[in-house]
């Protein structure tokens, strides 16, 4: 059987690889699937290049890394729940969800974050495919928490290594409390259906550690500026100032030790959600962008609710 080709993501980065030459037929082989999963554990993310752009191929690649998990937010658009369970649609529509960052208006901009921080249970990974691309922007950035921890200022490491952060499901741009760009304001809010607010009302805040030891054996810095509420036990001006300093340091270091992916036809990307942070550059509000994402189940086991959710049935359904 032909073999796929592996090369580094970027010569200057200590994480990530590129895989080319992968076909659906090759993924029927159990040893090939295991080899790809082993590479993923070691490197944290994979860019699959020039692969078949179909729902079936996305599901085949996703299945190398574990079973699919339904997205915990019920209001998120599903592509086709009967035919493609676990595949969600991420669409940037014209004139919606606009923020101004450093004087430029952008649609679907997102800061450094990890997925499902607002839940007690994370997901192992996400597999992303670009269905409709934009000419400018629409770039997805990736930042390795293992590499980030190694270069983080020692004084901050000492202060946050044993800390935990509170998160709350809050997607509007004006709700971002920490790590804002220097010039930042919401121009047009995201449209939010009533069912979203109903679900939020049943949910407690979630708690996750700032630092944890990854399966690769190294410590990873793992903070989402998006949806962060404060430090557990220190929701004070001093605690907020510390969390703000940490998030701004992540922004600063993210400029030099991250990878930013400009989407092409034939690309799919998987990243380790328990190790990597990611962000979205945003795009021209007059253009539309469409991504399909699968969510891979598999939790790191360190998250928890602040209190028992008001609606246990809803919480169980989200897990």
TrEMBL record:
<dbReference type="Pfam" id="PF02668">
    <property type="entry name" value="TauD"/>
</dbReference>
<keyword id="KW-0479">Metal-binding</keyword>
<keyword id="KW-0408">Iron</keyword>
<protein>
    <submittedName>
        <fullName>TauD/TfdA dioxygenase family protein</fullName>
    </submittedName>
</protein>
<comment type="similarity">
    <text>Belongs to the TfdA dioxygenase family.</text>
</comment>
<dbReference type="InterPro" id="IPR003819">
    <property type="entry name" value="TauD/TfdA-like"/>
</dbReference>
<dbReference type="GO" id="GO:0051213">
    <property type="term" value="F:dioxygenase activity"/>
</dbReference>
<dbReference type="InterPro" id="IPR042098">
    <property type="entry name" value="TauD-like_sf"/>
</dbReference>
<keyword id="KW-0560">Oxidoreductase</keyword>
<dbReference type="InterPro" id="IPR051178">
    <property type="entry name" value="TfdA_dioxygenase"/>
</dbReference>
<keyword id="KW-0223">Dioxygenase</keyword>
<feature type="domain" description="TauD/TfdA-like">
    <location>
        <begin position="23"/>
        <end position="295"/>
    </location>
</feature>
């Amino acid at each position: 059987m032909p073999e796929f080709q592996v090369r580094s993501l970027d010569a200057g980065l200590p994480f990530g690889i590129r895989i080319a030459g992968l076909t659906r037929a090759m993924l029927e082989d159990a040893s090939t699937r295991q080899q790809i999963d082993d590479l993923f554990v070691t490197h944290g993310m994979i860019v699959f290049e020039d692969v078949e752009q179909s729902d079936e191929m996305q599901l085949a690649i996703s299945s190398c890394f574990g079973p699919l998990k339904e997205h915990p937010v019920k209001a998120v658009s599903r592509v086709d729940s009967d035919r493609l369970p676990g595949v969600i649609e991420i669409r940037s529509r014209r004139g919606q969800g606009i923020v101004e960052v450093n004087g430029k208006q952008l649609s679907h901009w997102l800061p450094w974050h990890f997925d499902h921080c607002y839940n007690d249970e994370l997901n192992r990974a996400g597999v992303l495919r670009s269905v409709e691309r934009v000419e400018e922007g629409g770039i997805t950035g990736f930042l390795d928490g293992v590499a980030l921890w190694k270069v983080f200022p020692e004084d901050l490491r000492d202060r946050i290594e044993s800390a935990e952060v509170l998160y709350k499901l809050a997607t509007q741009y004006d709700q971002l409390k920490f790590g804002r760009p220097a010039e930042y304001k919401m121009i047009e809010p995201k449209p939010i259906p009533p069912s979203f607010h109903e679900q939020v009302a049943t949910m407690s805040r979630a708690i996750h550690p700032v630092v944890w030891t990854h399966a690769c054996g190294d410590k990873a810095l793992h903070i989402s500026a998006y949806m962060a509420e404060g430090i557990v036990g220190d929701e004070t001006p001093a605690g907020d100032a510390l969390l703000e300093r940490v998030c701004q340091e992540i922004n600063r270091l993210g400029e030099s030790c991250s990878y930013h992916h400009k989407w092409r036809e034939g690309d799919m990307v998987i990243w380790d959600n328990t190790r990597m942070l990611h962000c979205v550059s945003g795009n021209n509000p007059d253009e539309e962008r469409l991504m399909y994402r699968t969510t891979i189940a598999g939790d790191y086991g360190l998250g928890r609710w602040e209190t028992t959710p008001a609606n246990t049935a809803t919480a169980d359904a989200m897990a």
